[in-house]
Write a structure and sequence with these properties.
The complex is a heterodimer of chains A (about 325) and B (about 325). Chain A is of the alpha/beta class and about 325 residues long. Chain A has 11 helices and 12 strands. Chain A is globular. Chain B has about 325 residues and is mainly alpha-helical. Chain B is built from 15 helices and 2 strands. The two termini of chain B are about 30 Å apart. The N terminus of chain B is likely disordered. Classes of the chains: A alpha/beta (about 325), B mainly alpha (about 325). The interface between A and B is large, with 40 and 43 residues.
Chain lengths: ~325, ~325
């Protein structure tokens, strides 16, 4: 009896948690890579704002950590409830290709955001040009090194958050390509972490131990940026070291302010969520959409971080939308 | 006097019977080998790279090891009673986020730390009650905790990094008192738990319960109390590690301390703890943590491919446990 009661209560709790008045056709499911990261919370915030404007329900879905099999399961169950459209950021390029095709074949438009998948059956793909972002990081690093040493020369390295992720690989590729414009910058090292701040922190310290004349480091996501920033702050190297990091979560912004990070390459996750839901809604109602949409990157340094245009990219709560005139 | 002579005579007899060196080697605990291996690695690294034996690198490694070692010491206590604590990584994150939230909201630092430690103790009590009173296997209870406390960390932080902490939070982990503060924290924890395990009745009961829970119960040992001690130590030290990690990173992220439980178990096991219970020492857990830190440090300094580094660490765990089992089998075989 007690057991049945407990089970019943658990069932009721789940049902209540998922209950709401909206019909399935008024719902857009947004599936992110990892619900535990601030970046994806910004995507959700943009998606929610779009949902409010459109008067539809936005389902915020995903696995806590990057997990391709888990994400496929989430995608399949979301598709099963026949939403108007699905907005998804595929965790692994190869793995999510077929499942996304299957959803499109079943008649639900799929909008991909942030990262691609191995399929061409999708309505639109809104993403940062990650390679361009990596190149911007190389440029920011070069100008930092010039500013501090008078010449663009020295040893540099980069930290990869996780192996085998399309968006991270593109950033790293862009960075390595971008460095080629500066022949005196010598790439001496690359380490791969487990997407963990403390590990990024240790690796940064160890890389500087290995090459004590290292002048710059590129950290390719928020976790790595926060960890590397903490290491630079701990070693009090901010004034001479050139750390450039991708994204802009609270930890990174703090290190930008205290000088441990020279520049942040910021994407527009809010716009991916916001635009993703609008695009999904449009596609669900029959609009033909551009296949690839670049949501843009910006380079923020301590000098320009108070610029009102960049403030909304650094802090999603300061985000103000204005009419889009064109790139 | 005559007793002494007798003892030394016996010792001589033992050596005279031959194979004394081998017998001695067999009797040495596995920690001795792991320590020797670590020291050998240090010597090799000092020769192979000029950057290893520097003040900077050593204090870096001390900082890197301390938090992992504190978690490993706690988990080792649960392994000693033939239990396991898979929830520690999530508890580190949960308590870290909680601590950061309190600091960000202006609560005095000592009070925030105390409340966080209390939360850790509460987690431990809950785990122990579920295991000791409800009889749910420790693996399942703490697996549930692994999921639930990570969820609570996310709820508490709204999935966002908690920043904007007062500068005083960072001061501890960055500070030094000749050696890094974090190292002293690890030493204090290590000495205290070592004392508890080796020199108190509670400590003896932990080993007794781990060797044979049924026999321990029949001898009148209160096994629920002993279970409580082990899991409160584990969760409490995870809470402490959470505070230290926040101090080190100067932020709290709900995704931090991912898979720390596995690192902790690996450190404890490499340091001689047996998952079947009854064996495990503080020194072993610390040495295990130091060995893993040394390996990842070495991998960077020697530019070992990061993927190979993972493979090598895995092989090391398997090798050490194999050697340990081999040794035990030989001992029991005479």
């Amino acid at each position: 009896m007690k057991k049945t009661l407990l089970l019943g209560a658990a069932l009721a709790a789940f049902t209540l948690a998922g209950m709401n008045g909206a019909k399935a056709e008024d719902t857009i499911a947004v599936i992110v890579k990892a619900t535990t990261s601030e970046y994806w919370q910004w995507v959700f915030k943009g998606a929610e704002d779009a949902g409010k404007q459109l008067g539809i329900k936005v389902d915020k879905l995903g696995t806590p950590k990057d997990d391709a099999a888990g994400q496929i399961a989430v995608l399949e169950s979301a598709a099963g409830s026949k939403p108007a459209a699905i907005v998804i950021s595929p965790t692994i390029y190869e793995a999510l290709g077929d499942p996304i095709s299957a959803v499109s074949d079943a008649g639900v438009p799929v909008i991909m955001i942030d990262s691609g998948a191995k399929t061409d059956k999708y309505a639109a793909f809104l993403t940062t040009n990650n390679e361009a972002g990596g190149k911007a990081a190389a440029d920011a690093m070069a100008s930092c090194i010039k500013e501090r040493t008078g010449k663009v020369a020295g040893k540099v390295g980069y930290l990869t958050a996780m192996a085998g992720h399309e968006s991270l690989d593109s950033r790293d590729k862009g960075f390595v390509e971008g460095l080629k414009a500066y022949p005196d910058l010598k790439l001496v090292g690359n380490r791969v972490a487990n997407n963990e701040e403390a590990e990024g922190m240790s690796l940064t310290a160890d890389m500087i131990t290995k090459d004590s004349d290292l002048v710059g480091l590129f950290a390719d996501n928020a976790q790595m940026g926060t960890g590397a920033g903490a290491s630079i702050a701990e070693q009090k190297l901010g004034a001479k070291f050139c750390l450039v990091a991708f994204d802009s979560d609270a930890g990174e912004v703090e290190h930008l302010k205290d000088g441990s990070i020279y520049a942040l390459i910021i994407q527009d996750p809010y716009m991916m969520g916001f635009g993703g839901v609008w695009y999904g809604y449009a596609a669900a109602h029959g609009a033909r959409l551009p296949k690839d949409v670049d949501t843009g990157v910006g380079t923020v340094t301590k000098a320009n971080m108070d610029d009102p245009k960049l403030a909304g990219l650094l802090d999603v709560n300061k985000r103000k939308l204005s009419p889009f005139i064109g790139n | 006097m005559s007793e002494q002579i007798l003892v030394s005579n016996k010792f001589l007899e033992g050596t005279a019977k031959g194979g004394s060196m081998r017998a001695l080697l067999r009797r040495l605990p596995i920690e001795t080998y792991v320590i020797s291996f670590t020291v050998a690695l240090w010597i090799a690294l000092s020769i192979a790279t000029p950057n290893f034996l520097t003040e900077n690198n050593i204090s870096n490694m001390m900082r890197q090891t301390s938090i992992a070692a504190i978690v490993a010491i706690g988990v080792m206590c649960t392994i000693v009673i033939a239990g396991i604590d898979l929830s520690v990584g999530s508890v580190v994150a949960f308590c870290g986020v909680m601590f950061a939230q309190m600091c960000a909201h202006g609560l005095a630092l000592p009070l925030a730390a105390l409340l966080t430690l209390a939360a850790g103790v509460l987690v431990g009590v809950t785990n122990a009650l579920a295991i000791g009173r409800l009889g749910i296997p420790a693996f399942i209870v703490t697996l549930a905790g692994l999921q639930a406390y990570r969820g609570l960390a996310l709820l508490l932080s709204g999935g966002m990094t908690v920043g904007g902490l007062p500068a005083s939070v960072k001061d501890f982990a960055r500070g030094t008192l000749v050696l890094p503060n974090l190292f002293w924290a690890m030493l204090a924890v290590g000495v205290a738990v070592h004392y508890l395990l080796r020199f108190t009745r509670t400590g003896r009961y932990l080993y007794a319960m781990g060797s044979n829970a049924e026999a321990a119960r029949r001898q009148g040992i209160n096994t629920l109390r002993i279970t409580m001690v082990a899991y409160v130590l584990s969760a409490g030290l995870a809470a402490l590690a959470g505070i230290l990690l926040v101090s080190r990173l100067s932020i709290a992220s709900p995704s931090m301390a991912n898979a720390y439980e596995l690192q902790a178990i690996a450190a404890a096991v490499v340091g001689g703890a047996s998952l079947f219970g009854g064996r495990g020492t503080v020194l072993g857990a610390v040495v295990g943590a130091v060995l893993f830190t040394t390996m990842s440090n070495a991998a960077v300094l020697l530019s070992v491919d990061p993927f190979w580094e993972m493979v090598l660490e895995g092989l090391l765990i398997a090798l050490v446990v194999y050697l340990d089992n081999l040794q035990k089998r030989r001992q029991s075989g005479g």
